[in-house]
Write a structure and sequence with these properties.
mainly alpha, 17 helices, 0% strand, globular
Length: 391
Amino acid sequence: MVKNIISGNNRTLLINVIWFLFPMLACIAEISRGLGDINNFLIYKQVFWHTIEQKHLYLSYPLEYSDVNHYGPLFSILIAPFALLPVYIGCFLWCLLNVGFLFYAIKQLPLSEKSIQFILLIGVFELITSVHSVQFNPMLCGMILLSFTAIEKEKIWLGTFFIVVGTLIKIYSVVGLLFFLFTPHKKKFIYTGIVWAVVLVCLPMLISSPQFIIDSYIDWYEVLIEKNGQNIESSMFAGMQDISVMGMIRRIFGVYDMPNIYVTMPAGILMLLPLLRFSLWGNPLYRLIYLALLLIGLVIFSSSSESPTFVIAVIGYLIWHVQQPYKDTFPYKVLLVLMLLLTIFSPTDLFPKFIREQYILRYSLKALPCFVAWLAVVYTLLFSQFKNKLA
């Protein structure tokens, strides 16, 4: 009887409510602690005002917020409606937009309702971590998903729009350019991408000046290079940055001077190798699993990755997991448990503080299950025959 009560539409409704309710409670909790706990939103808000005032977007402004901005000038347009509101209201609505945007993007995936429910139910816990930091990453993940699904539906203008928007705000979305390989409308992909790039690069000029925006893009490039070096240095102190495969290696083995390229180069080759299976480019399941590979890889092979970034990798893992015909076997269950323990729950108070700080954080172990999953996805793409239908 209980099973019948929570089946069908009732179960879908319950999961949908959980998806929105838990992260928004996390947002309210952060807001209730005061401005110091929503520092990221203060940075975002000031990106808009600094753009209008033509103040350097990437300098430190300690009287306004701690840390510095690392998002592209286009972000000033995205954050504008929220920057104009009272800070706490703007922060709440910003978090709600991120939660809703990713929800909508997941719903657009070519998956069964059962698979989508599983992704939402497990993914919400990593979403909470991101919302706790008032992060943009849920929306960024949604942009990558929507660029993929739009191109799958041959809505090329929409697909390239999300690729360009995401890339001009946070460089991760550049992985969407690989979707070019999977569409027969390659010319349209190229010219729509160019049109959107021109329009969206120029868009912030409407609230500032052409010269300031051009200079800001140059400044953005320079600050990203600088930040990469800072992230690597933070590994020496078990900081919150560089939670990546490179960070694991640096922290576990103490090789803090190891260049990223020693890991990113082999990883890049492994990510491209499955594309040599040209005959599978037309297979919807193959394309979806390749999307999962990109989502995981762009996080675990970035020295800029921090705990709130992993919502992208976890969604990628879950997309792959629900498609595996053997997901109920022991190895897949073990990986799911490791993902829950080390990646999803390790930053929370549900995990013992001593273990969290002395082991998980100290050695960047949050990235470990995602790395194992990434290797499994590579293996799937290289050797699976992809005869199954989308689940």
